[in-house]
Every structure is written in structure tokens, then in C-alpha cells.
Specification:
single chain; 488 residues; alpha/beta; Rossmann fold; four-stranded mixed β-sheet; globular
Length: 488
């Protein structure tokens, strides 16, 4: 197979491939405005790069991006971007991430490579003969200055190969519908009688699509509606909390293919079935740096290349890309579970954690904990989030879990008790706080059906690629969710 050589080179040559990507990026951008401002002509190795290019976020690059929008060329990368990918930022509001002619293949080809890897490793390719659906943002593009701008999933829709497009659903017109609930209902009508074989999207929104399918069809399972459905492709969130509900909705086991795409670049995808961790793509125009999460806010934090990472340690991901992003923090945290080849798992977001009392609980801990307790109590979760309750009117401070169940546990108190036990095992700082009576055991608030959809709609983030944060370090979300409890 043509691609098997490339896959094998990732195993054997990932470090040298990254060195090649690094030198290529620096040389190509040496005469850009950013390259001149940061003395790229003096950079010959990673130490030089650290000296001249500090870690940045979107706000740091925004003046350069504004110059691009105003029509300047050769600002962050030679020429001008061919698109701006619109994405919601945690701290920066709306962000416009450049996509260049050099970087667009990363987004397109990496998704194709993920499917080819699946076929290569499993030998299963029956899905090719059916219809495919990707529940995504609108492909309709606006303009920012002279540059087309839209959601990444909408931009990618314009580059779907012809041999895939003939099997792709929904139609362009349906994908352009802006109201999420109207869009889902339209997609249901378009796909209901089709031979669906591959379905892709963020799990909570695909779950909503499945529920509407069953509602419209009157069937008991997705397998009854789509008997040829065999492959679910997803990314963006941990699937574990949704797994039991999906099995019930689908009514049979289907293959899972996990990916790690971002507006800034396609980072990794699953290469073993089943697998722990995702295979890092080392040769696709992205140079990676990894910063220990506990040191990220230091004035000059350590910045490791792939060569120096350690297993089972949390790192913040920093990228430099052929789209003109330089030492740019993705905001994601990852942990390597293998170095031969380099596989990682996404553990959370730098800004999405709970640490009001110094415990620093991360997404991987709460997601794996709720998955474990749901399996024990045969419960199913639609969505959830965790926030600190500092001023608890009913006792001392605690963690407050807001959970919308599709199948609630029969004994919620036992569910809550076991969930707290698991959290204490996973996070020793949390355990010390509970045993030291600084915190009381966690509280579970069972939300009414549709609460998270109502919340996301209230903040203008219903559908597309928007995700519910599973961890908050303040009460902004929790206080709104409390109101849904009061009216229930």
C-alpha cells in the first residue's frame, strides 16, 4: 500500500521528520514581517527559536492578523492566506485563524489518512459503498477583508474530493441552515431513507441527531434505520462519557475512529483498533513543542520537542505551522502514552479545569470517573459539567456536578458516593482536601432533559463544533444551570 511506507516512517523517523519541518518553516518564513521582527535569520536550532520567539496566544498574534485582514502580504507566512477559519476562543472571543495554500493539505489529507489507516489496519472498507455524513458547520463563507472566512468544517467542505462528494450528505443547501434545530430536522429528513455507512461529528450533537432519527422513524435503534452503518468518526471530546448511550441508541457495536483536528491544524488520529492514544502526525507542516502544564504560566517555561517528552506527563501543546502560527498555544493539554510510535491522549484544556482550592482537577479525570461510575450503575449521560461551590449554603465547600442523564441511576446517593471515591483515587490533591475537611464530598445535581441544549442556545453556541466545557473554575455556567433546576 502506497501510504504504508509513510505510516512506518512516522514510527521510525518522527524526530528527524520534526527537525525537517522546523528548518523548512523557518527558512520559508525568514523574509515575512514576523520573521524579520523575530530574527529568523539568526535561528538555526530550537534553542535559538526559544530565544527569539516566545510562546504566544491569539491576542499576541492579533496585530499581525489585523494587518493580513487589511490586505498586507507576507505578514506571518509568504503571500496571503486563502481562508480565515473562524473559531470561538476561551479568552479572546472570536478568533480568525489563517489557512494558507501550504497548510490546507494538512486539514484535507490528514482526515483522508485517518480513514486509510483504518482500512490498512482493519481490512474493513465496506463503508465506502454507502453514504457518509459529517454533522458540521455551514459551508457558506463570508469575507474578512478580501479573504474568505468561515468555520473550518465549512471550509473543508469545499475541498471534499469528487469521489467522496457523490456519497456525502447532507446537501449543500441543508448544511447552510443556520438554526441548529431546524438543520438537524432537515438532515434527518434527507438521510432517513439513505444507506448510511459512515457518520461523523462531535458525540453530543450526533447523539441529538440519532434521537431525532428515532423520533421521526418510530424505530427502536439506529441499526434498524441504518443497518449498513459501520463506522463512527469523531473528535473534539472524550467519547467515554457518551459510550453507553451510543451503544443503546445504535443497537449494535460499530467501529470507532477518533481524530484530533483543530482550526490550527490536524494533530493526530487513531491508528490501532482498539487503541489507547492517537498517533501524532510528524510531517504535515506542524512543528510541536510541549510545555509541562504546571510550568506553563512561568515567565520562561521549559519547551520540549518530541525528542524530550516523557510518558504519562501532562503537557500544553504549542505549535508553529505553515499557516503562519508561531509558538502558538493551542490551549489543549495532552499526555503521551507511547513513544514508539508517538501516541498521545488529549487530557483537557489549559483554561478548563477546577482548582478553586488548589486541587487542579483536569478533564481526563472527570471524564474517566463518570464513565466508570456510569458503567457500575448502568446509567447514561447526555452531558455534564463540574464547578466549584465555594460558598455552600448547606455546608462546607465542594465540587458541584451538573449531570443530564438519559438514563438516571436508581440510587443517586450511591452513584454520588462512588463517583467521589473514584475522583479521590484519581486526584490525590482532591483526596487530601476531602479527608482534611477542607472540602466535603461532591454534590450531584440531576438536570432536566434538554438543559444543556437550552444553555448552549442561550449563549449562542448551539450546534456546529461548539462543545460543553466539562470543567469550570468559576460559577458562570453553574449559576445558569441552577435556574433550570429551580423551574423543573
Amino acid at each position: 500500500m502506497l501510504y504504508s511506507y509513510r505510516f512506518k516512517s512516522w514510527d521510525a523517523n518522527a524526530i528527524s521528520l520534526q527537525k525537517s519541518v522546523f528548518s523548512g518553516l523557518i527558512q520559508k518564513a525568514i523574509n515575512t514581517h514576523f520573521g524579520k521582527d523575530h530574527h529568523f535569520s539568526e535561528i538555526s536550532n530550537h534553542d535559538d527559536f526559544i530565544e527569539h520567539v516566545p510562546i504566544c496566544d491569539y491576542e499576541t498574534l492579533k496585530p499581525y492578523i489585523n494587518r493580513i485582514i487589511d490586505g498586507e502580504a507576507n505578514v506571518l507566512w509568504p503571500g496571503k492566506p486563502i481562508y480565515l477559519a473562524k473559531t470561538s476562543g476561551t479568552t479572546s472571543g472570536v478568533k480568525n485563524i489563517p489557512i494558507t495554500r501550504d497548510s490546507i493539505p494538512n486539514h484535507i489529507n490528514s482526515a483522508r489518512l485517518a480513514l486509510l489507516m483504518y482500512i490498512y489496519k482493519t481490512g474493513r472498507c465496506d463503508f465506502i459503498n454507502g453514504k457518509y455524513i459529517f454533522i458540521s458547520g455551514s459551508p457558506e463563507l463570508n469575507r474578512m477583508g478580501s479573504i474568505p472566512m468561515g468555520r473550518l468544517s465549512g471550509i473543508v467542505n469545499h475541498h471534499v474530493p469528487f469521489y467522496v462528494r457523490r456519497n456525502q450528505l447532507p446537501t449543500y443547501k441543508s448544511n447552510c441552515i443556520t438554526d441548529w434545530e431546524t438543520k438537524i430536522d432537515t438532515i434527518v429528513q434527507e438521510t432517513l431513507q439513505q444507506k448510511m455507512s459512515l457518520i461523523s461529528g462531535i458525540p453530543p450533537w450526533v447523539e441529538q441527531y440519532f434521537e431525532r432519527i428515532l423520533q421521526f422513524s418510530g424505530k427502536g435503534t439506529i441499526n434498524e434505520v441504518f443497518p449498513y452503518f459501520s463506522l463512527f468518526v469523531y473528535g473534539g471530546v472524550n467519547f467515554k462519557p457518551y459510550e453507553l448511550r451510543f451503544k443503546e441508541l445504535i443497537g449494535k457495536d460499530v467501529d470507532l475512529l477518533e481524530t484530533y483536528p483543530a482550526s490550527e491544524g490536524f494533530i493526530a488520529f487513531q491508528d490501532e483498533f482498539p487503541s489507547q492514544g492517537l498517533l501524532l502526525i510528524p510531517d504535515s507542516g506542524i512543528f510541536y513543542e510541549f510545555v509541562p502544564t504546571e510550568r506553563f504560566d512561568d515567565p520562561n517555561p521549559p519547551r520540549f520537542t518530541l525528542e524530550n517528552v516523557e510518558l504519562n506527563k501532562n503537557y500544553a501543546v504549542v505549535v508553529s505551522t505553515n499557516a503562519g502560527l508561531w509558538a502558538y498555544s493551542l490551549g489543549d493539554t495532552v499526555m503521551f502514552v507511547s513513544k514508539n510510535p508517538y501516541r498521545l491522549m488529549v487530557t483537557g484544556r489549559l483554561k478548563h479545569y477546577t482548582s478553586a482550592f488548589g486541587e487542579h482537577v483536569i478533564a481526563e479525570e472527570v471524564e474517566s470517573s463518570i464513565d466508570e461510575v456510569c458503567k457500575r450503575f448502568n446509567a447514561q449521560v447526555v452531558e455534564f459539567t463540574v464547578a466549584p461551590l465555594v460558598n455552600n449554603p448547606d455546608g462546607i465547600a465542594c465540587h458541584e456536578w451538573f449531570i443530564e442523564f438519559s438514563k438516571a441511576p436508581e440510587q443517586l446517593d450511591e452513584f454520588k458516593h462512588f463517583l467521589d471515591e473514584i475522583m479521590q483515587k484519581k486526584n490525590p490533591y482532591y483526596k487530601d482536601l476531602v479527608t482534611g475537611k477542607i472540602l466535603q464530598p461532591l454534590i450531584v445535581r440531576a438536570l432536566p432533559k434538554g438543559a444543556f441544549i437550552k444553555y448552549m442556545k442561550s449563549i449562542g453556541k448551539l450546534g456546529e463544533q461548539n462543545k460543553v466545557p466539562h470543567l469550570m473554575n468559576d460559577r458562570s455556567m453553574a449559576d445558569v444551570l441552577h435556574r433550570y433546576l429551580e423551574v423543573n
